[in-house]
Amino acid sequence: MSFAREVKEEILNHTFSQEQAKALLCGFIKYNGELIFTNKGFALKLTSTSNNIIRKIFSLLKEIYSGNIDISIVQTQKLNRDKVYELVLTDNIQEFLAKNYIYDIGNNVKIIEINLKNDHDNSLVRAYISGVFIAIGSVNSPETTNYHLEFQTKELESANYLKEILNSFEFDFKVINKRTKYICYAKKSLVVSDFLKFVDASRAVMKFETTRINRDVSNNVNRMMNIDIYNQQKTLSAGSQQVKEIELIMEKRLFNELSEKAQKLATIRLANRDASYSELELMMNETGIAITKSGISNLFKIIKKLAESIGD
């Protein structure tokens, strides 16, 4: 099961008041419903590839819709495709859609905005957004490295209205056009996590955050290991070059040209070719010569300069 379906099914496992159920169904039907014309007049078809989702939608509908609802299962012709579960509402469709601010059949217009007059605690707008997400929303699995949550609409007005609602809660959704679709989307992990909280998908939040944190920790560990490996390789390379310079100076009998500190450092380096500057600092201090890593770096620059002068 995809992570997006897990989120949708978790949302529908909650208990809703009648007003919240109306708001959720308003969002779902507005973007999932399809008007069809039968010999009895208009009918409304709702579909899902999830049996759990369609059963929950059916249960919520029975609370606010008194008409007939036909249930059917359609087996798609394509291989490896899920069955499609359908609900068809056949009675008083025009009145039902208008009363719930979903569709104006007379003017053939989807009602984009919602009625939030009695939404004193934001529970209705959250239910509405939940319904829209169940209908046209998707979210990437937290297992992927690409955080992405989106609503895919047919109308620019719908995408912009969703963005307006969501960003009024300090989200960071944007809208783009892809061919014939308009996408209201967010890509930041924090926004995705906060949205899951917004629609009360607490188990999904826990899974998302746990996976994200584990991956971030793993990435940080790998990054630190790579840094350590790089530093070790850098130390080995620098140590090898410094040994060559010291040996050249000794070969040319110019070792006494170095200061006492530089001579001591050179002697320690020859005996400890793989030692880091921190280790060299400790060894120098143990001989009674107080010095820092910066001081060691400066002494090696002096040694390097003398070795290069020999080549000149």
Shape: rod-shaped
The sequence of SSEs as H and E is HHEEHEEHEEHEEHEEHHHHH
**What's the overall average pLDDT, rounded?**
86
Spans of at least 5 consecutive residues with low confidence: none
Features:
312 residues; alpha+beta; Endonuclease I-creI; four-stranded antiparallel beta sheet; 10 strands; 55% helix; 15% strand; cell division; Probable cell division protein WhiA; DNA binding; cell cycle; Homing_endonucl
Kindly summarize this structure in a few lines.
Helix content is 55%, strand content 15%. By secondary structure, it is of the alpha+beta class.
Would you mind describing this structure in some detail?
This is Probable cell division protein WhiA. Involved in cell division and chromosome segregation. A 4-stranded antiparallel β-sheet has the order 1-2-4-3. It has 11 helices and 10 strands. The longest helix has 50 residues. It is rod-shaped. The protein is 55% helix and 15% strand. It has 312 residues and is α+β, with helices and mostly antiparallel strands. The mean pLDDT is 86. It has 2 domains: 198 residues, Endonuclease I-creI (Roll), CATH 3.10.28; 84 residues, no CATH class. The N and C termini lie far apart (72 Å).
